[in-house]
């Protein structure tokens, strides 16, 4: 406890006092004793404090702590992808300051974050938890985040290491096949930056295999890359249950098992006692853990529960979200809204009543929340405008993640329960697999959206399923919902128009659907996800058809996803759901319509399609037809397809905006602030127009080949000559900007480690409003025939300019920007020759061109 000694000296002294049992205890998580799955209890004999670890993708996840004024709530920040959309490292500091403070205030010593996995796959359920598809932008946001957290005496745990980009098969041997150069240049780049520039304290190894070896026992990843090449001195812990061996993992460089006590704990103790694992390896891991704890002040700081400054932290959440919101389209100056010309506003969308947030382990129970509807009603009162609300569609939940591209969940407004009062169906739940005996619960369900397991269970994932109550878990089932359960839905379906319909069921388990006592859908007899459709059904407008659906969760997809089923349909083109018709009518009688539509995303599940779920596409089309002055707000964790884009004059991307999302959106909609967000990921035109190497993860191949190499994201679009719908880096302003007068230092030395290149360009605000632009510098292919991306981001600057103002923008590049990873030599190599330099405002809008000559 002598703070005059170095962290290394203190760690060595403590190690010498530890028994073998205590060393192993430090390396093994105590899931059963802690409030969450990531917890190491104290070793009281020696005064070693606990390591309580906070889930923290967009704030501190509630895991059992209670504060006097705010209970188990925390500031729900915008998601990491929204943070990256600010393109502002200072915002990363502001954001991390809130999360780091609240980690301390809620009694945590370790922050399980930030995430830095490149988002190569737009279907990925967790892409909103990470920063971007680009290693430069990832690193630029991760480094200040880690610095700010660790300055507060909290260990930052960067995750998920490595090449973790999809949920399908993640826990059953998913094997990423990727070359070493792509790993070093793209997939682990942010780890290296955080190690070299922020003295990163901890790394979490991922579930997946990398080139046939699990990440948590992969010596190349854990020892060669992290420690030998990057100089990492911290410790590596597993994701929840991601360990698969005792000897193999500790020999590879794993230090701590969390989530389960299978391969460390008693198993590791026996392996040392029997001579299969040298105690020196245990000492090595213990020293890494202890040294990091001493270095970050874990032994010396107080982590007692203290109050959260609710208003102060909420203000930061709002500021970050205001800077993240991205204007994708703005025809005819639809935005900003003019307070003097708007007397009536229609706010439309079932999810406009709650701020967008991730589900699963990333969900944060907010200290308070302001939805879009809340904020628009408040603004309406201020300016004397009438704000009316129509739901239009049904709220998303975890089941809507598996809606296919050509079907949608049957809307509640065409369903009637047994007694015919209200919308929905009568649901009877049974505590067995075959609908026998007495029911365990009877209630009206708005739709057939059955889902139990990690993505939906409040007990397991601490998830609040927004407006929709989660699928009940009857007595006898585990907290995760595993076990025998079945449900029968009864009532009627009312066709909104005459024509040909198709009914379908998608999910896992077994299901049957009867219409007027005729079996029309039978989803039985197979494991895995299925999508079964009826033959064409000719229905008459306004007629009620008896509907019965039986489902049993007898065929789990995986252990954490025991049962999921969606009743879906496709309809004639003129079949407009009553709720959509009411929304269109409200829009048509208003000066402006604001449609808020979103996706549901979260851990353990990928999206089946990139479309907007819950009949959102029809809702947008009908509302824009009724009112050409319509703004579409997208609350999604990344790309969605937009077949309705031509009809929508203005589109804002809000991502998942946290508890202040509504206020931030109102600020941008009314032009109080200029929209300054830029896309951190590319948006494809359709699911058939993805970059080479990327495919829908539900194709269910256990081997995932990263055949694109270093051409991840926008690089792949360019290399494959695939035109994105919206490019990486895209973001509009309410003003206009022009770039000119490019100047580039045209020499850099191969051997000059301190050599830098300044890229200068003049940015002018040519519009009639103050505004913000992000100036982006891209490099072209490397010289000497080196296989290189067509363009790669090398630097950027976010610039605020008043109307008519101009500024010379300088962006400095260094030697690493002109290098590539030579796998044979195990080093970065800078080839000599001329390298093209481009300056612009997105990956496809590069207006200025120059060059740098790399010389010996």
From TrEMBL:
Superkingdom in the source lineage: Bacteria
Gene3D superfamilies with a match to the protein in the record: Galactose-binding domain-like, Glycoside hydrolase family 3 C-terminal domain, Glycoside hydrolase, family 3, N-terminal domain, Immunoglobulins
SMART domains: Fn3_like, PA14
Region Disordered, residue ranges: 112-131
Keyword set includes Transit peptide: no
UniProt-listed GO biological process terms: carbohydrate metabolic process
Domain (PA14) ranges: 420-584
MF GO annotations: hydrolase activity, hydrolyzing O-glycosyl compounds
UniProt keyword terms in alphabetical order: Hydrolase
UniProt cross-references to PANTHER family, sorted A to Z: BETA-GLUCOSIDASE
Family according to the record: Belongs to the glycosyl hydrolase 3 family.
Name recorded for this polypeptide: Beta-glucosidase
Species, as recorded: Conyzicola nivalis
């Amino acid at each position: 406890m002598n703070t005059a000694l170095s962290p290394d000296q203190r760690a060595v002294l403590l190690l010498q006092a530890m028994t073998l049992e205590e060393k192993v205890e430090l390396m093994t998580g105590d899931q059963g004793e802690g409030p969450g799955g990531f917890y190491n209890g104290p070793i009281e004999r020696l005064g070693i404090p606990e390591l309580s670890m906070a889930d923290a993708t967009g704030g501190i996840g509630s895991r059992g702590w209670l504060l006097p004024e705010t209970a188990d709530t925390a500031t729900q920040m915008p998601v990491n992808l929204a943070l990256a959309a600010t393109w502002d490292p200072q915002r990363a500091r502001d954001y991390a300051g809130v999360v780091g403070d609240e980690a301390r205030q809620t009694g945590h010593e370790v922050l399980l974050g930030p995430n830095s996995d490149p988002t190569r796959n737009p279907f990925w359920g967790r892409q909103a938890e990470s920063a971007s598809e680009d290693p430069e932008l990832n690193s630029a946001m991760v480094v200040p985040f880690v610095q700010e957290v660790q300055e507060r005496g909290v260990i930052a745990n960067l995750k998920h290491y490595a090449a973790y980009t999809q949920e399908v098969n993640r826990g059953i041997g998913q094997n990423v096949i990727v070359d070493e150069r792509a790993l070093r240049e793209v997939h682990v780049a942010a780890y290296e930056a955080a190690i070299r520039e922020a003295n990163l304290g901890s790394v979490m190894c991922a579930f997946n295999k990398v080139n046939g070896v699990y990440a948590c026992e992969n010596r190349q990843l854990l020892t060669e890359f992290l420690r030998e090449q990057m100089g990492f001195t911290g410790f590596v812990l597993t994701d929840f249950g991601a360990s698969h061996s005792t000897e193999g993992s500790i020999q590879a460089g794993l230090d701590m098992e969390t989530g389960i006590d299978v391969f460390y704990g008693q198993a590791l103790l026996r392996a040392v006692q029997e001579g299969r694992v040298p105690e020196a390896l245990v000492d090595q891991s213990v020293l890494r853990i202890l040294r990091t704890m001493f270095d970050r002040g874990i032994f010396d700081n107080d982590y007692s529960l203290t109050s959260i400054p609710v208003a102060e932290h909420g203000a930061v959440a709002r500021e970050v979200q205001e800077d993240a919101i991205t204007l994708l389209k703005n025809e005819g100056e639809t935005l900003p809204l003019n307070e003097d010309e708007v007397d009536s506003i229609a706010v439309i969308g079932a999810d406009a009543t709650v701020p967008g947030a991730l589900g699963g382990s990333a969900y944060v129970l907010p200290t308070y929340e302001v939805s879009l509807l809340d904020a628009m009603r408040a603004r309406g009162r201020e300016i004397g405008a009438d704000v009316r609300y129509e739901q239009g569609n049904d709220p998303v939940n975890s089941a809507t993640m598996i809606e296919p591209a050509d079907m949608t969940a049957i809307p509640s407004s065409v369903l009637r329960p047994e007694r015919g009062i209200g919308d929905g169906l009568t649901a009877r739940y049974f505590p067995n697999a075959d609908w026998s005996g007495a029911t365990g619960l009877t209630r009206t369900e708005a739709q057939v959206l059955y889902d139990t397991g990690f993505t939906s269970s409040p007990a397991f994932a601490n998830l609040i399923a927004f407006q929709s109550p989660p699928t009940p878990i009857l007595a006898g089932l585990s907290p995760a919902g595993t076990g025998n359960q079945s449900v029968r839905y009864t009532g009627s379906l009312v066709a909104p128009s005459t024509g040909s319909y198709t009914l379908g069921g998608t999910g896992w388990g077994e299901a049957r659907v009867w219409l007027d006592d005729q079996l029309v859908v039978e989803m039985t007899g197979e494991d895995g996800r299925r999508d079964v459709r009826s033959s064409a059904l000719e229905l008459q407008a306004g007629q009620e058809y008896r509907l019965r659906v039986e489902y049993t969760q007898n065929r789990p997809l995986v252990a954490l996803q025991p049962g999921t089923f969606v009743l879906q349909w496709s309809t004639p083109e003129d079949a407009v759901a009553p709720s959509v018709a009411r929304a269109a009518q409200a829009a048509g009688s208003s000066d402006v319509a604001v449609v808020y539509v979103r996706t549901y995303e979260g851990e353990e599940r990928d999206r089946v399609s990139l479309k907007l779920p819950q009949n959102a596409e029809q809702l947008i089309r009908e509302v824009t037809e009724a009112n050409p002055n319509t703004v579409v707000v997208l609350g999604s964790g990344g790309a969605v397809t937009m077949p309705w884009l031509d009809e929508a004059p203005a589109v804002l991307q809000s991502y998942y905006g946290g508890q202040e999302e509504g206020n931030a959106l109102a600020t941008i909609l009314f032009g109080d602030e200029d929209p300054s967000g830029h896309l951190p990921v590319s948006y494809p035109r359709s699911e058939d127009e993805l970059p080479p190497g990327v495919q829908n993860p539900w194709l269910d191949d256990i081997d995932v080949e990263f055949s694109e190499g270093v051409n991840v994201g926008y690089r792949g679009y360019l290399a494959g000559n695939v035109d994105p719908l919206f490019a990486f880096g895209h973001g509009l302003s309410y003003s206009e900007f022009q770039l000119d007068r490019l100047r580039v230092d045209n020499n850099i030395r191969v051997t000059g480690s301190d050599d830098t290149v300044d890229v200068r360009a003049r940015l002018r605000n040519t519009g009639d409003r103050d505004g913000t632009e992000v100036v982006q510098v891209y490099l072209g292919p490397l010289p000497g025939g080196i296989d290189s991306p067509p363009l790669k981001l090398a630097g950027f600057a976010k610039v605020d300019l008043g109307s008519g103002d101009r500024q010379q923008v300088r962006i400095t590049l260094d030697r690493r920007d002109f290098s590539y990873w030579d796998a044979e030599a195990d080093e970065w190599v800078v080839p000599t020759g001329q390298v093209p330099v481009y300056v612009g405002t997105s990956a496809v809008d590069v207006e200025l061109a120059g060059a740098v000559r790399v010389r010996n």
